[in-house]
Amino acid sequence: MKKQWTTIVAIILMVIVSFFAISNMENVPVNFMFKTVTWPLIMVILGSLLLGALIAVLISTGSMYRNRKQIKQSERKVVDIQAKSKEDLDQNRKEMQQMMESQLRDKNEKIAALEEEIRQLKGTAKM
């Protein structure tokens, strides 16, 4: 359905351009600084239109290239930051794990010492 609408719009535009071309067939002088030529007005208008479109495409291509380059640089920065963040998280996790294991050993040693003290107290209480 979309292609049909595109075709219809293209046909309408061609009809409009054809009427425009027929109504602008007069010859006009065009001065190129070093030479003056006479062309039909429609050729001058269409030539100007095409030249303007070409300039617009060239300008937009340059800015599009810069935008793509900037996007790639930004994506690289994001990847680098994510990698650094992951490294930092891994390092923090290792440090926390070591600290927790150390605290666990200390608590286990304290529990063992208290259990030994309880055994000794029970042994002296029986006597």
UniProtKB/TrEMBL annotation:
Residues 86-124 form a coiled coil. GO terms for cellular component: plasma membrane. InterPro entries: LapA_dom (IPR010445). Keywords: Cell membrane, Coiled coil, Membrane, Transmembrane, Transmembrane helix. Residues 24-84 form the Lipopolysaccharide assembly protein A domain. The chain crosses the membrane at residues 7-25, 37-59. PANTHER family: MEMBRANE PROTEIN, MEMBRANE PROTEIN-RELATED. This is Uncharacterized integral membrane protein. It comes from Pisciglobus halotolerans.
